[in-house]
Amino acid sequence: MDLMEIYEIDRTVDFIHSRNFTRVALQFPDELLKDCTKVVRVLREKIGRLKEQIGVSLFVMADSTYGSCCVDEVGASRINADCVIHYGHTCLSPTSTLPAFFVFGKAMIDVSSCAASLSNYASNNSKPFLVLFGLEYAHAIPYIREELVAAASTLSGSKTKTVFHFAEVMCPLINPPDCHKESGGLPRSVGDGEVSDELGVAACSRHTIGGLSWELPSGQKMEDYLLLWIGSDNSAFANVVLTFNGCEIVRYDANGNFLGTDLSQQRRILKRRYYLVEKAKDANIVGILVGTLGVAGYLNMIHQMKDLITGAGKKVYTLVMGRPNPAKLANFPEVNPII
């Protein structure tokens, strides 16, 4: 795949042109900075060919104020940007002031090898499977699904029929005024929800995490499924492991073309989180570390946390800092846990 395809240049230009944006912030994570100059050059060439397009200024944000997965509205506001084009991995958290367009990128994957590995593993299990994936592999999921369906048809004579459910990518465009609505594929908070039919009876449960969403039939829960993750052993995968820790999970590594079942590292992270939760119960002063000022509803979440902490008879500090590290947090030795 070339740069035009990986970074979805045509779709990005259409987004900028259709909304008449003139000041566009391009947010790159550290690992993609090597391509930013090429992307800017190609975008300028494409935009320049549109005769009716007025002058467009492109600004590269090379060092996000907070985590790179969230839209850096703080940095974009310093250049009076009209919108943000976000590249790479994202949690698709709703923005509060600026529209955002997400370009996930397209990582290479051997579709046949992936489908064969998943099919072979599924043939020895009776549970239904839920397929989750890193957003950089979203472009290959339709082809993997086709090969799995084809493989399942060849095993039609088997006693058990393997059922695969695939998560879907939420809308790669976020408009601030609509961020609280649950229509048009816009992100919701991570958790469970119910979708009701016309009679008001819960027909299915809806789940979302890390830019993915899916629905489970009525009467079924996440623990009934075996989770198959396609992608790297990164923060997105760790989030899935921690959130759905009651499920059996396996991971297909697209770089090494193998299916791994050893999640000892993620289990250690989960045990440490349980330890820190217990430690927080004994704390006298609790710090709330604010990791972003751009996600819609962050103030409400902070107020809810403060109410819970003060209701438990503890003092609370609110800490706002970009790129937190041990040296910065050491300036507040009186704070026991920081959440």
Automatic annotation (TrEMBL):
<comment type="similarity">
    <text>Belongs to the DPH1/DPH2 family. DPH2 subfamily.</text>
</comment>
<dbReference type="GO" id="GO:0046872">
    <property type="term" value="F:metal ion binding"/>
</dbReference>
<dbReference type="Pfam" id="PF01866">
    <property type="entry name" value="Diphthamide_syn"/>
</dbReference>
<keyword id="KW-0411">Iron-sulfur</keyword>
<dbReference type="GO" id="GO:0051536">
    <property type="term" value="F:iron-sulfur cluster binding"/>
</dbReference>
<comment type="pathway">
    <text>Protein modification; peptidyl-diphthamide biosynthesis.</text>
</comment>
<dbReference type="GO" id="GO:0090560">
    <property type="term" value="F:2-(3-amino-3-carboxypropyl)histidine synthase activity"/>
</dbReference>
<keyword id="KW-0408">Iron</keyword>
<protein>
    <recommendedName>
        <fullName>2-(3-amino-3-carboxypropyl)histidine synthase subunit 2</fullName>
    </recommendedName>
</protein>
<dbReference type="InterPro" id="IPR016435">
    <property type="entry name" value="DPH1/DPH2"/>
</dbReference>
<dbReference type="GO" id="GO:0017183">
    <property type="term" value="P:protein histidyl modification to diphthamide"/>
</dbReference>
<dbReference type="InterPro" id="IPR042265">
    <property type="entry name" value="DPH1/DPH2_3"/>
</dbReference>
<dbReference type="InterPro" id="IPR042263">
    <property type="entry name" value="DPH1/DPH2_1"/>
</dbReference>
<keyword id="KW-0479">Metal-binding</keyword>
